[in-house]
Task: inverse folding
Protein backbone atom coordinates (compact mmCIF):
# COMPACT_ATOMS: atom_id res chain seq x y z
CA UNK A 1 0.00 0.00 0.00
CA UNK A 2 0.96 3.63 -0.44
CA UNK A 3 -0.32 6.62 1.55
CA UNK A 4 -0.95 10.11 0.20
CA UNK A 5 -2.29 13.46 1.41
CA UNK A 6 -5.33 14.31 -0.69
CA UNK A 7 -6.72 17.86 -0.67
CA UNK A 8 -10.27 17.32 -1.90
CA UNK A 9 -11.08 21.03 -1.88
CA UNK A 10 -9.75 24.14 -0.15
CA UNK A 11 -9.66 23.55 3.60
CA UNK A 12 -10.38 19.83 3.36
CA UNK A 13 -7.73 17.10 3.38
CA UNK A 14 -7.35 13.45 4.32
CA UNK A 15 -4.65 10.82 4.25
CA UNK A 16 -5.69 8.05 1.87
CA UNK A 17 -4.30 4.59 1.20
CA UNK A 18 -3.99 3.28 -2.30
CA UNK A 19 -2.08 0.66 -4.24
CA UNK A 20 1.47 1.66 -5.07
CA UNK A 21 1.39 3.46 -8.43
CA UNK A 22 2.63 1.35 -11.33
CA UNK A 23 4.79 2.95 -14.00
CA UNK A 24 3.70 3.11 -17.61
CA UNK A 25 6.07 3.31 -20.55
CA UNK A 26 8.74 5.95 -19.94
CA UNK A 27 7.81 6.40 -16.27
CA UNK A 28 9.47 5.75 -12.91
CA UNK A 29 8.05 5.24 -9.43
CA UNK A 30 9.98 7.08 -6.73
CA UNK A 31 9.79 6.31 -3.02
CA UNK A 32 9.64 9.75 -1.42
CA UNK A 33 12.17 10.44 1.33
CA UNK A 34 11.36 14.11 1.96
CA UNK A 35 9.01 16.71 0.51
CA UNK A 36 9.22 20.42 1.27
CA UNK A 37 6.31 22.76 1.88
CA UNK A 38 6.25 26.25 0.41
CA UNK A 39 3.84 29.16 0.21
CA UNK A 40 2.10 27.73 -2.83
CA UNK A 41 1.20 24.62 -0.81
CA UNK A 42 -0.41 26.90 1.76
CA UNK A 43 -2.28 28.61 -1.09
CA UNK A 44 -3.56 25.25 -2.38
CA UNK A 45 -5.00 24.44 1.03
CA UNK A 46 -6.43 27.93 1.53
CA UNK A 47 -7.88 28.04 -1.98
CA UNK A 48 -6.03 31.24 -2.90
CA UNK A 49 -3.94 29.85 -5.76
CA UNK A 50 -5.25 31.14 -9.13
CA UNK A 51 -7.66 28.65 -10.68
CA UNK A 52 -5.59 27.82 -13.80
CA UNK A 53 -2.71 26.69 -11.58
CA UNK A 54 -4.36 24.03 -9.42
CA UNK A 55 -6.75 21.14 -10.04
CA UNK A 56 -8.77 19.68 -7.15
CA UNK A 57 -8.74 17.06 -5.78
CA UNK A 58 -4.94 17.10 -5.68
CA UNK A 59 -2.05 15.43 -3.89
CA UNK A 60 0.26 18.44 -3.31
CA UNK A 61 4.05 18.42 -3.10
CA UNK A 62 6.45 19.75 -5.74
CA UNK A 63 9.71 19.99 -3.73
CA UNK A 64 10.94 16.47 -3.09
CA UNK A 65 13.72 13.88 -3.07
CA UNK A 66 13.58 10.12 -3.14
CA UNK A 67 14.82 6.80 -4.44
CA UNK A 68 13.67 5.10 -7.65
CA UNK A 69 11.86 1.84 -6.80
CA UNK A 70 10.69 0.61 -10.17
CA UNK A 71 10.71 1.77 -13.80
CA UNK A 72 8.40 1.16 -16.72
CA UNK A 73 9.14 -0.11 -20.23
CA UNK A 74 11.65 1.96 -22.13
CA UNK A 75 13.46 3.22 -19.01
CA UNK A 76 16.98 2.04 -18.12
CA UNK A 77 17.11 -0.36 -15.18
CA UNK A 78 20.21 1.56 -14.06
CA UNK A 79 17.85 4.11 -12.51
CA UNK A 80 16.48 1.59 -9.99
CA UNK A 81 17.95 2.38 -6.58
CA UNK A 82 19.19 5.83 -7.66
CA UNK A 83 18.72 8.84 -5.38
CA UNK A 84 16.87 11.46 -7.40
CA UNK A 85 15.02 14.73 -7.56
CA UNK A 86 12.74 15.69 -10.40
CA UNK A 87 11.48 18.58 -12.47
CA UNK A 88 7.89 19.61 -11.87
CA UNK A 89 6.65 20.82 -15.25
CA UNK A 90 5.16 18.06 -17.41
CA UNK A 91 6.44 19.72 -20.56
CA UNK A 92 5.89 18.48 -24.11
CA UNK A 93 9.57 18.89 -25.10
CA UNK A 94 8.37 19.60 -28.64
CA UNK A 95 7.28 23.27 -28.72
CA UNK A 96 9.62 26.16 -29.38
CA UNK A 97 9.89 27.10 -25.70
CA UNK A 98 10.71 23.55 -24.61
CA UNK A 99 13.29 23.14 -27.36
CA UNK A 100 14.98 26.34 -26.21
CA UNK A 101 15.17 25.01 -22.62
CA UNK A 102 12.26 27.02 -21.21
CA UNK A 103 10.26 23.95 -20.19
CA UNK A 104 8.50 26.06 -17.54
CA UNK A 105 6.83 27.94 -20.40
CA UNK A 106 5.64 24.93 -22.37
CA UNK A 107 3.17 26.03 -25.05
CA UNK A 108 1.09 22.88 -24.57
CA UNK A 109 -0.32 24.44 -21.42
CA UNK A 110 0.38 24.48 -17.70
CA UNK A 111 0.80 21.03 -16.12
CA UNK A 112 2.89 20.56 -12.96
CA UNK A 113 3.53 17.96 -10.29
CA UNK A 114 1.75 18.83 -7.06
CA UNK A 115 -0.66 21.28 -8.70
CA UNK A 116 -2.39 19.59 -11.63
CA UNK A 117 -0.69 16.18 -11.33
CA UNK A 118 -0.33 14.04 -8.19
CA UNK A 119 2.55 15.30 -6.07
CA UNK A 120 5.02 14.16 -3.45
CA UNK A 121 3.09 14.43 -0.18
CA UNK A 122 2.89 10.66 -0.44
CA UNK A 123 4.87 7.48 -0.02
CA UNK A 124 5.32 7.19 -3.78
CA UNK A 125 5.36 9.47 -6.82
CA UNK A 126 5.11 8.36 -10.44
CA UNK A 127 6.41 10.67 -13.15
CA UNK A 128 8.15 10.61 -16.54
CA UNK A 129 11.69 9.32 -16.05
CA UNK A 130 13.01 12.03 -18.37
CA UNK A 131 12.29 14.57 -15.59
CA UNK A 132 14.61 12.90 -13.07
CA UNK A 133 18.03 14.17 -12.00
CA UNK A 134 20.34 11.66 -10.33
CA UNK A 135 22.17 12.80 -7.20
CA UNK A 136 25.85 12.04 -6.88
CA UNK A 137 27.27 9.84 -4.14
CA UNK A 138 25.50 9.76 -0.79
CA UNK A 139 24.17 13.28 -0.70
CA UNK A 140 21.69 14.07 2.12
CA UNK A 141 18.25 13.33 0.70
CA UNK A 142 16.38 15.49 3.22
CA UNK A 143 18.45 18.46 2.11
CA UNK A 144 18.04 17.51 -1.54
CA UNK A 145 14.31 18.24 -1.30
CA UNK A 146 15.27 21.94 -1.46
CA UNK A 147 16.85 21.66 -4.90
CA UNK A 148 13.54 22.76 -6.46
CA UNK A 149 13.56 26.29 -4.97
CA UNK A 150 17.29 26.44 -5.71
CA UNK A 151 16.49 25.68 -9.36
CA UNK A 152 14.07 28.62 -9.42
CA UNK A 153 16.78 30.85 -7.95
CA UNK A 154 19.28 29.55 -10.50
CA UNK A 155 16.96 30.62 -13.31
CA UNK A 156 16.62 34.09 -11.83
CA UNK A 157 20.38 34.49 -11.48
CA UNK A 158 20.99 33.31 -15.02
CA UNK A 159 18.61 35.98 -16.29
CA UNK A 160 20.58 38.73 -14.50
CA UNK A 161 23.77 37.76 -16.38
CA UNK A 162 25.80 38.75 -13.30
CA UNK A 163 29.50 39.30 -13.83
CA UNK A 164 32.33 38.75 -11.35
CA UNK A 165 32.98 41.83 -9.22
CA UNK A 166 29.53 43.38 -9.54
CA UNK A 167 27.41 44.63 -6.65
CA UNK A 168 24.45 42.35 -5.89
CA UNK A 169 21.48 42.40 -3.54
CA UNK A 170 18.72 39.91 -2.68
CA UNK A 171 15.40 41.16 -1.31
CA UNK A 172 13.83 38.53 0.95
CA UNK A 173 15.61 35.85 2.98
CA UNK A 174 13.11 33.02 2.98
CA UNK A 175 14.06 29.77 1.29
CA UNK A 176 14.05 31.26 -2.22
CA UNK A 177 16.07 34.27 -1.13
CA UNK A 178 18.66 32.23 0.73
CA UNK A 179 19.07 29.90 -2.26
CA UNK A 180 19.59 33.00 -4.40
CA UNK A 181 22.19 34.32 -1.95
CA UNK A 182 24.07 31.01 -1.99
CA UNK A 183 24.08 30.71 -5.78
CA UNK A 184 24.91 34.39 -6.35
CA UNK A 185 27.88 33.96 -4.02
CA UNK A 186 29.31 31.38 -6.42
CA UNK A 187 29.57 34.15 -9.05
CA UNK A 188 32.06 36.13 -6.88
CA UNK A 189 30.24 39.46 -6.55
CA UNK A 190 32.18 42.29 -4.94
CA UNK A 191 29.36 42.66 -2.42
CA UNK A 192 26.27 40.60 -1.71
CA UNK A 193 23.67 42.33 0.46
CA UNK A 194 20.68 40.47 1.89
CA UNK A 195 17.60 42.60 2.59
CA UNK A 196 14.71 41.66 4.88
CA UNK A 197 12.41 43.23 7.45
CA UNK A 198 13.22 40.33 9.80
CA UNK A 199 16.48 41.20 11.53
CA UNK A 200 16.62 37.68 12.97
CA UNK A 201 17.52 36.41 9.49
CA UNK A 202 20.90 38.15 9.44
CA UNK A 203 22.99 35.27 10.81
CA UNK A 204 21.40 32.79 8.42
CA UNK A 205 21.86 35.12 5.44
CA UNK A 206 25.54 35.56 6.27
CA UNK A 207 25.88 31.79 6.66
CA UNK A 208 24.66 31.40 3.09
CA UNK A 209 27.20 33.93 1.83
CA UNK A 210 25.80 37.43 2.28
CA UNK A 211 28.51 39.99 2.99
CA UNK A 212 26.04 42.41 4.61
CA UNK A 213 22.46 42.53 5.86
CA UNK A 214 20.10 45.51 5.77
CA UNK A 215 16.46 46.16 6.58
CA UNK A 216 14.45 48.32 4.16
CA UNK A 217 14.42 51.09 6.77
CA UNK A 218 18.20 50.98 7.06
CA UNK A 219 18.51 51.22 3.29
CA UNK A 220 16.11 54.17 3.17
CA UNK A 221 18.27 56.02 5.71
CA UNK A 222 21.53 55.31 3.88
CA UNK A 223 23.10 55.99 0.50
CA UNK A 224 22.85 52.32 -0.54
CA UNK A 225 19.75 52.83 -2.67
CA UNK A 226 20.21 52.85 -6.43
CA UNK A 227 23.72 51.42 -6.55
CA UNK A 228 23.42 47.69 -7.22
CA UNK A 229 24.25 46.12 -10.58
CA UNK A 230 22.05 43.09 -9.93
CA UNK A 231 19.02 42.75 -7.64
CA UNK A 232 17.01 39.55 -7.12
CA UNK A 233 13.58 39.89 -5.52
CA UNK A 234 12.51 36.75 -3.66
CA UNK A 235 9.97 37.93 -1.08
CA UNK A 236 6.92 37.73 -3.31
CA UNK A 237 5.17 41.03 -2.67
CA UNK A 238 4.50 44.18 -4.64
CA UNK A 239 6.40 46.23 -2.07
CA UNK A 240 9.48 44.03 -2.29
CA UNK A 241 9.42 44.24 -6.09
CA UNK A 242 9.33 48.03 -5.85
CA UNK A 243 12.21 48.00 -3.36
CA UNK A 244 14.25 45.79 -5.71
CA UNK A 245 13.84 48.32 -8.51
CA UNK A 246 14.72 51.20 -6.19
CA UNK A 247 17.94 49.48 -5.15
CA UNK A 248 19.11 49.07 -8.74
CA UNK A 249 21.46 51.57 -10.31
CA UNK A 250 20.80 53.03 -13.76
CA UNK A 251 21.24 50.35 -16.39
CA UNK A 252 21.05 47.52 -13.83
CA UNK A 253 19.30 44.15 -14.05
CA UNK A 254 16.47 43.07 -11.75
CA UNK A 255 15.02 39.56 -11.49
CA UNK A 256 11.61 39.08 -9.87
CA UNK A 257 11.47 35.60 -8.38
CA UNK A 258 8.61 35.89 -5.89
CA UNK A 259 4.94 35.64 -6.88
CA UNK A 260 2.99 38.65 -5.47
CA UNK A 261 -0.50 37.94 -4.23
CA UNK A 262 -1.64 41.44 -5.24
CA UNK A 263 -0.49 44.44 -7.23
CA UNK A 264 0.09 46.80 -4.30
CA UNK A 265 3.12 49.09 -4.59
CA UNK A 266 3.65 48.17 -8.24
CA UNK A 267 6.86 49.37 -9.91
CA UNK A 268 6.25 52.76 -11.59
CA UNK A 269 7.02 52.77 -15.31
CA UNK A 270 8.85 56.07 -14.78
CA UNK A 271 11.32 54.30 -12.48
CA UNK A 272 11.89 51.49 -14.96
CA UNK A 273 12.39 53.79 -17.92
CA UNK A 274 14.23 56.54 -16.06
CA UNK A 275 16.85 54.07 -14.87
CA UNK A 276 16.67 51.93 -18.03
CA UNK A 277 16.35 48.82 -15.93
CA UNK A 278 16.31 45.37 -17.45
CA UNK A 279 13.63 43.43 -15.57
CA UNK A 280 13.35 39.65 -15.83
CA UNK A 281 10.64 37.51 -14.28
CA UNK A 282 10.78 33.84 -13.33
CA UNK A 283 7.89 31.38 -13.26
CA UNK A 284 9.01 28.13 -11.66
CA UNK A 285 12.20 26.40 -12.77
CA UNK A 286 13.21 25.47 -16.29
CA UNK A 287 15.27 22.43 -17.19
CA UNK A 288 18.30 24.71 -17.36
CA UNK A 289 17.70 25.98 -13.84
CA UNK A 290 17.38 22.41 -12.58
CA UNK A 291 20.65 21.41 -14.20
CA UNK A 292 22.49 24.34 -12.59
CA UNK A 293 21.06 23.65 -9.11
CA UNK A 294 21.71 19.90 -9.25
CA UNK A 295 25.28 20.48 -10.43
CA UNK A 296 25.92 22.88 -7.55
CA UNK A 297 24.39 20.43 -5.06
CA UNK A 298 26.27 17.41 -6.40
CA UNK A 299 29.54 19.35 -6.27
CA UNK A 300 28.98 20.29 -2.63
CA UNK A 301 28.74 23.99 -3.51
CA UNK A 302 25.12 24.28 -2.36
CA UNK A 303 24.02 23.11 1.09
CA UNK A 304 20.41 24.09 1.88
CA UNK A 305 20.37 22.21 5.22
CA UNK A 306 20.38 25.31 7.51
CA UNK A 307 17.02 26.39 6.07
CA UNK A 308 15.23 23.28 7.40
CA UNK A 309 13.56 23.82 10.79
CA UNK A 310 10.82 21.17 10.91
CA UNK A 311 10.44 17.57 9.77
CA UNK A 312 7.02 15.96 10.29
CA UNK A 313 5.41 12.66 9.31
CA UNK A 314 2.90 12.53 6.47
CA UNK A 315 -0.02 12.26 8.89
CA UNK A 316 0.87 15.68 10.35
CA UNK A 317 0.11 17.55 7.11
CA UNK A 318 -2.57 19.60 8.89
CA UNK A 319 -0.13 20.58 11.64
CA UNK A 320 2.46 21.47 9.00
CA UNK A 321 -0.03 23.82 7.30
CA UNK A 322 -0.71 25.50 10.65
CA UNK A 323 3.01 25.99 11.30
CA UNK A 324 3.57 27.27 7.75
CA UNK A 325 0.73 29.77 8.14
CA UNK A 326 1.85 31.00 11.56
CA UNK A 327 4.51 33.42 10.26
CA UNK A 328 6.60 32.59 13.33
CA UNK A 329 10.19 33.81 13.07
CA UNK A 330 11.54 30.36 13.95
CA UNK A 331 9.83 28.67 10.98
CA UNK A 332 11.98 27.94 7.96
CA UNK A 333 11.52 25.04 5.58
CA UNK A 334 9.07 22.37 6.71
CA UNK A 335 9.58 18.85 5.42
CA UNK A 336 7.05 16.03 5.29
CA UNK A 337 8.94 12.75 5.61
CA UNK A 338 6.91 9.66 4.73
Result:
Amino acid sequence: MSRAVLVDAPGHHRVVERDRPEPQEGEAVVRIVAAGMCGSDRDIYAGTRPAPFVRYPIIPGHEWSGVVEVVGPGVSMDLVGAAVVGEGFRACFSCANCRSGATNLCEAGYDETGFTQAGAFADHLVLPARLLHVLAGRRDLDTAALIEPAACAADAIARTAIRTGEQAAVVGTGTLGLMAVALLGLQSPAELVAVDVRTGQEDLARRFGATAFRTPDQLAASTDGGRFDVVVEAAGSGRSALLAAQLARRGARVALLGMPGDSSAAIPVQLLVGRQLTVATVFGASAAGWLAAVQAFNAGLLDPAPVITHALPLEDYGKAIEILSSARPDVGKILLCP
